[in-house]
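User: Can you fold this complex?
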Amino acid sequence: MRRTVLPVLGVVLAILAFWYVAAIPMNIREVVTEAERAGASVWGGPATERQGRSAWALAVNNAPIALNGWSQERPRLPAPHQVAQELYQSTIGEEVFSRRGIVQKGEFSNRGLVYHAGVTLGATMVGFLIGAAAGVLLAVGIVHNRAMDMSVMPWAIISQTIPIVALAPMIIVVMNSVGVQGLLPKAVISAYLSFFPVVVGMVKGLRTPDQMQLDLMHTWSASTSERLWKLRLPASVPYLFASLKVAIAASLVGTIVGELPVQRGGLGARMLAGSYYGQTTQIWAALLMAAVLAAFLVWFMGWLERRTLRAMGVPA
Amino acid sequence: MTLVLLAALVWVGGWALNTWLTRGARARSRAVRTAVPLIFGATVLLCWELIVRGLNVPPAILPPPSRIGQTFVANLPLLWGDFVQTILKGAFSGLAIGVAAALVVAVLVDRFDVLRRGLLPVGSFMAALPIVGVAPIMVMWFGFGWQSKAAVVVLMVFFPMLVNTVAGLQDTTAMQRDLMRTYGAGYWPTLLKLRLPAALPFIFNGLKIAATLAMIGAIVAEFFGSPTQGIGFRISTSNGALQLDMVWSAILVGALAGSAVYGLITFLERWATFWHPSQRT
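Assistant: Here's the predicted assembly.
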């Protein structure tokens, strides 16, 4: 435990330190302009002249005010504690202490990140379940039907090399124009993205039983469906979970991208809104929330995998 | 309505043809192996065309493939410009920088055990995150040009590449390393002559993942702001104007570029790792 925790902690601290240092030159121009407006004399001459100077020179020569870069209203790069503050404000602060929050009103505030994360999570889960189920079904078909295998598999593999996410805005707008709104269009995208990894992984998994095992099933005069349920499906479980982990991360990305064109809630909508109104801290907080969500989903899949494999008696 | 019936007939016909082709020993020949997916693809396209025409689906919802093809051919110069802007400038420069950085860091991580234990968990965590989300921030920092797209791509490809390369660098057996030691080889000769070549299959695997991610990053980043060129720009503006044939053409460009890059990497892999069991047939 200590062998991994300490180095990881060190790396995380190094990243935070780098982040703090980087925030100084990133924000220095705004800081200097602000100080000049407030009447202080700053190094670097008038604004037009400062344009030509490097950010580091400005930071070093204006050392007394340089650290203000960590407390800007609209920083180019917010310092970590500002992001943490925004994250706290828009989750606990919004839900517990605000009049719009769950404590006062009984439902999640639509200005809080919890609400938006919930919107994203819902669409991701619906899409993921549809995509994974369809993927497993198609894989079963592929394994049992050679015509299907040879016609569909090459396309399934090629489709993984093309940027499918680019379809997202189109699907949203088209489904919007035929009157389908809300969760479903986003779920379609995330289903589509989780579909192909599951197909490819499942086909590989369903094919793992070797000839010997299949022959054994044959000597027991097992029917095709018995072979599927009692040999192929159990054998494919490790492959299934490996591809489910990839698929759920892909569906989350799909949902977030799908939320960009239609501003009706969700982390993607939140990011785009932040980018429109220059609310950098809001983007960072939404990004962090998405990271937490992704980490949770992948962890959950890993947990499910361990539980299932242990229940099946596979040595961990 | 007749057209829709015709589509059903085409579907059944194509499927029957494929079933007949894949039955028995015929399926093993090379010609059949290439023909079957092509027949399937052609069947899908034909059914799409017939159904869209038969049901009079407005082109603002789903244009028929023939119309997409026409738009694609008619706008070749425009789409070429998009290709250069997004793929060549944005995705490739980002891919090159990200991959180079990941390779250097991977060698460092491999050299120092503390770094490996610290960076690898963080790296695999980052590899699972929706990094496309940094696109709005990068556009804010680096402007609307290709530089911001390249920055997004660098961040997206770095971690998968790092994790794969580090795994590859550790893929030598103690026996092989001992042999190098008996030859009197130090760290650098061992790295260059044994461990980097041994890591190549992993590196190519990472490259394949990274190439797809690079396209996604470059296209999605354009949704947050771009010059009046680029695949992502074309998709979002044509989408707003309901010119879906143009959207599909832009996606076709992305698909062609993606498959071409994937093919190129596979070719290089076959050339560079001809000794690996997975490449010997």
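The two ends of chain A are 18 Å apart (CA to CA). Chain A has two domains: 2-77, 113-311.
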